[in-house]
Write the structure tokens for this entry.
Amino acid sequence: MRTKEQNAPQDLQEHLARLEANGLLTKIQVPIDKDAELHPLARWQFQGGLPDDQRRGFLFTDVHGAKGEKYDIPVAVGVLAASPAIYAAGLGVEEDEIGDVWVRAMENPIDPVMVDEAPCQEVVITGDALKAEGGGLGSLPVPVSTPGFDSAPYFTATLCVTRDPENGIRNMGTYRAALKAEDRLGVRMASRLSGAGGYQHWLKYQKRGEPMPCAIVIGCAPAVLFTGPQKLPIDQDELGVAGGLTGKPIRIVKCKTIDLEVPADAEIVIEGLVDTELLEPEGPFGESHGHVALEDFNMSMRVTAITRKRKPVLVSIVSQVTPSESSVLKRVAYEPLFYNHLKKVLNVKGIKRVVMHEPLTNIRKVIFLEFDRSAPQSEIWRGLQGAANLQAQCGKIVIAVSDDIDARNADAVFWSLAYRANMIDDVHVSPYRSGGHGPKSGSKRAEGTLLIDATLKAPMPPLALPAEPYMTRARKIWEDLQLPRLSPQPPWHGYSLGDWSDLWTGFADSAVTGDWRATGENTFSRRRPGIKPETPVRDIEKKD
């Protein structure tokens, strides 16, 4: 059941209009080369150290190619998930509602509804027109994602629609597709781990000796596209979940040349048949694990039609080294889903937050769990094991910290590891997990899982920074002096960790009011003979 009215945009262009109205879209109206300039420009807001709230979606309105080609189709980059705020706008919710919306959508899918006519088929290109130079795939301003390494322009923000030939269940996955010819694409549908849904369908068509129909959707309502990167059960229809995300049925239409249905309000749809006999070299391509994927044999798709709106927008995703749009796209949905699994499915006591480490590691490999300080050690270990085992590709390293640690700050996590984890008692290594998503160079062996309990085990002295009132007061002075802009990262003030007394609070209060002489009188009266220097006072005085 929905707890409040959802207001998700119904197509990509409505989403872009909302982003612009809310100051989350930047229009780039100078000429931009899609092959050499477009993605590097968009990449700078991730590599340039901009915080989430300063990142924007980009809409490039004057796009040309390396050979001087001019395109009348704008290209949008970063408009799906350059920041959590942009992702939330695509669902029509606030940022803190993303997780709840996903859980409700998966529990309460809404079946799509068929229509006869659709905006995505206002222009239909088939037959000889597909093969004419600049008339098929070459008519679309598909950018090069990693100039200097990628072998071709690639579609990245895809929904690849396939159907199980045995039970008719539809699958929509986000798989890359390389331009090979005016009417041919190289498509990678991941075969590692248990294999992507599209790959499982491909295997069944291969066994039947038939090519696999496939429709690649480029640009649609964000809620529909968001289902592609999400790891939903292989037999769950993503269009039903997308309906649950938007709160109403997704309109779908029959393809023109293959027996599949696609979102009716999509920008561009590429219909075709995937060869199940011959594979074609595909790559290199900069991957989301942060390395360039080298040449592999992957699927070859013959395009049978390109359909689109009269005035579409082509959307692309910034991926490769994280942080990136691709990692934000996954993180903002994965984190609440992992938290929901630990909190509601496993009923782990004391779990407060799940943080998937993003910079360079790409969220899957390293997971941090924040626990209430009262959580029993047995619950902490249940949480560690639960996070490591939810998905085969996630949780190579899982670290538990107490809730005074902001797990978004890796330095704070290292601090917790340094002083709160005993490497004899608080570390466990489990063998034999899949290597998961990563570069293929070198020998491949089964990996292990590293679990570390770096929570606070006993009271400790306060963090040695000025207490909050003094840091807040000093920041006001800093800003009044117009000194450089501050971007505080927790911990930015001192706080108690349990090992502290009222007496010492009194000493501290006296120090900041200039009454330190009174403290000196107190300590003078407590002098003792025959004691080694650095003997803790309480070890002696508690015996009295």
